[in-house]
Design a protein that fits this description.
- The protein is mainly alpha-helical and 123 residues long.
- The chain has one domain.
- It has four helices and two strands; from the N terminus they run αααββα.
- Helix 3 runs antiparallel to helix 4.
- The longest helix is centred in the middle third of the chain and has 27 residues.
- The two termini are 24 Å apart.
Length: 123
């Protein structure tokens, strides 16, 4: 696995699934006793026009994209989460069959840039 494959998998397995699952829950909350907020959101969502539902979907993608971009920027070390002074460094490894691959090498392209290039080409 390399950095680009990792980001593509995150887009497919996390980003797209989060939006699809959220829309599905808004259409019809799951469970025998859905939470009150889920029922309220579903009632509101189901009153929207088809074009408004499409805009809601776009807004969800924007929110998920901003969140994942932010997480990758933190992992890349370009969005600090510590105060001033000596800061730690995140290292993201993929380990399979005893072979470790560093996915966020300093000399390679940043994860958040890869994420942006993939998601901007999709949308």
């Amino acid at each position: 696995m390399d950095s680009e494959y990792f980001i593509e998998a995150i887009v497919s397995c996390v980003r797209d699934t989060a939006v699809d699952d959220t829309l599905s829950e808004m259409e019809e909350p799951s469970g025998r006793k859905p939470r009150k907020k889920d029922l309220e959101l579903s009632e509101w969502y189901n009153k929207q026009s088809v074009s408004d539902k499409e805009m809601i979907k776009k807004a969800l993608y924007e929110a998920v994209d901003a969140s994942l971009f932010g997480i990758f920027a933190v992992i890349d070390g370009v969005r600090p989460i510590e105060g001033a002074g000596n800061k730690g460094v995140f290292k993201l490894y993929f380990d399979k069959d005893g072979e470790k691959k560093l996915l966020n090498e300093d000399s390679k392209q940043y994860l958040h840039d890869i994420y942006n290039s993939i998601t901007n080409s999709i949308d």
